[in-house]
Each structure stands twice: as C-alpha cells, then as structure tokens.
Amino acid sequence: MQPTSTDDHLEPAQSADVLALAVRAATHDGVRPLSEQTVLDVRRLPGSPAGESHSTHLVVQENPDSPRPGVVAYAHVEHSEPPAAEIVVDPDHRHAGHGRALASAVLERWPDTRFWAHGDLPAAKALFRSLGLEAVRDLWQMTRPLRGEWSELPEVTLPEGFTVRTFELGRDEERWLAVNARAFADHPEQGRMTLADLRERTSEPWFDPHGFLLIEHDQDLAAFHWTKVEPAEPGHSVPASGEVYVVGVDPAYQGRGLGTVTTLIGLHHLRNRGLASATLYVEGDNDPALATYHRLGFERSAIDVMYAAAPEVG
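The structure corresponding to this sequence follows.
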C-alpha cells in the first residue's frame, strides 16, 4: 500500500490512530518512536493554531477503502533546514515494506531529509543503511539515580549576587526566549523555539511553573533550568523519573560555573518531589557537557541516531 500524505492537520481519527500506534510501538520496542514536537503536531486537530512548526504527515492505512481504515505506519517530516523525519510501524504489521515505502516517499520528495532512529534499533539501522544513509548525529539520553545507592547530590550555593525564582506565566516568556535563543544559537532545534512553541508546552498537562527555575542577577536572566515531570503511571502516586528538560546559561554569564549550579538546583527540585531518577538529553559530540554530566553522576542510558545521505566529496 502506498503512503498518503497531507501538509495540513491529520483528521481526528487518524490522529488518534497514530498516537495509539506510537504507544504500541513504544511498549514493544522499549523506546518512544516519536519526539515531543511530532506528538504535538499529530495532536493538533483541524481548526487549532498551527504554531510555528511546518510539517507533512504520511500514513499507510490498512484497507484504505473501508469505512474506518486503521493507520499501520506513519512518518512525520518537519520542514526544518534540512528536513527531519521520524517513522513508526505497528509491531503487528512489520516486515511488509511499510517502513521502506515511507522512507522512500520522503526521500523522493525531500532528498536531503535526515531520519531519526530513536534507540537506534537494528531494524531502523538496517533500513536506513540499505537506503544509502549513514549516521550523522548522536543524541544521548543520560540517567542518574535520585534515591538509593549513588544518589547523593552535592549541596548547591549560588554565587554572590545571584538569586533563583520560579517562572511566571505572562511575565517571563519573552525574556526567557531571548536568553534561550542566545544560549542555543548553534542548536538545530532548541535555539529555534518561538513564543507559539513555548505557549504550546506551557499548556501541556505536565507543565509546572515551580519546576521552571530562573537564575537572576540584578535585572538580568542569567541562567535557567526547566524540569519536566510526566504524570504518574496508573496505580502509582509519584512518577518514577523526572527530566532535565532544558538547562541554559546566557553567554554573557558563561565561565562562572553557573551551568553546574543551575543543573544541581533542578536536580534537588526533582529529588524533593520524590522521584527515583533524573534523565536528560545531550548531543553525543558535546564533550564539555558530557564531562559536566558525568561529574554529576549521569551515565548514558540510551541513544538516538540521525541518518542522512553522505555529503558529496569534491
């Protein structure tokens, strides 16, 4: 079956199918197949604001002529520069060529697309390599315990003249966006965050302004640590893990040890919430950040790999 595509919102039934498909794949593979931004795009129904993201959805449907065809495979293409894509295939419909059909359709339309392989699972690795693509970027997931053995956290003291407070909706959006853009000027995703993107995330059920910590000096926003805690699983009163969602330091305040201090402030917040562990994501070639996180007790727990066509020589 050939994929069908739309540059608009998915229909509500398709959106529900894709989200359910992603859950089945995550349960089967042990890794989430779609990024946060992709899930937001999938959930964005007709008539809702489009935000600043521009994307294409491709679906493969089972029995497309039936009154209620189900989605058995899905691809999302974000129109960044270059485009970035993710693919997920229902575990019960694999080995039927759906992944290859989606990847081939994407490459035919956007030959310079880069594909994320979350977890770098063997099937995804084999597919992308068979299409002549190679690994061009690694994103590490790192984890450290917050309770039990090896969970000790150093005490943290802010440098003189610095204070910490929590994010205030309606007051801090623009100044945070400005510092975030400066801190992540070279980052392909984080540095492009817009007000619409920020509002989309602060409207999510997991958002907690008390976990969005701002480090100030006089009237300046010098650094920040935005933590993320997903709702607890059914039957559990406390989520198992929290995330170091974003840590940033304004370049004007770098070199003062604020990165480590700001990270520790967020980790103490997560531990005080009763969480067992903390995770974060960091570029695999960011040696200074990796060294900092290793010193703070983080170890690599998973990896996402991006595949793309090899650059032409000459």
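The radius of gyration is 21 Å.
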